[in-house]
Amino acid sequence: MIDMIKRFPGIGCAYIGQNGDPGYEYYGFSDKESQREVDERTIFPACSISKFITAICTMKLSEQGIIDIDRPWRKGSSAPTSSI
Predict the structure, then answer these.
(1) Which of 25, 28, 39, 57 could covalently link to 10 via disulfide, CB atoms 3.0 to 4.6 Å apart?
(2) 2 with 37, same domain?
(3) What is the C-alpha separation between 29 and 35, in angstroms, rounded?
(4) Average pLDDT of the chain?
């Protein structure tokens, strides 16, 4: 546990409560040296978790019939394309 605290001195958690309302909890420090605590303004890097979240959201949209994951993206998207 001590190693985890050294590596991640602070964390912010968002959740949906049983009544459907959002909840937020903040723990630790955003800056250990100045002892600034984590709060709603703290910015965390997305790191590799963004890939996991993107995959879950994509599958949820597919289950709802909003996107077709078997169709090439450029054909299934109304997003502008780039020549880059």
Answers:
(1) 28
(2) yes
(3) 6
(4) 81
- Kindly state whether residues 35 and 58 are assigned to the same domain: no
Q: Check pLDDT > 70 for residue 14.
A: yes
Residue in this structure with the two tokens 């630790």, named with its chain if needed:
28
CA dist., res. 18 & res. 76, Å (int)? 36
Its pTM stands at 0.47
DSSP state of 47: T
Q: Which domain holds residue 16?
A: 1-43
Rg of the chain, C-alpha, whole Å: 19
| Paired strand residues for 27 | 11
Please state, in angstroms and rounded to a whole number, the distance separating the CA atoms of residues 48 and 55. Answer: 12
Q: Does 1 share its domain with 39?
A: yes
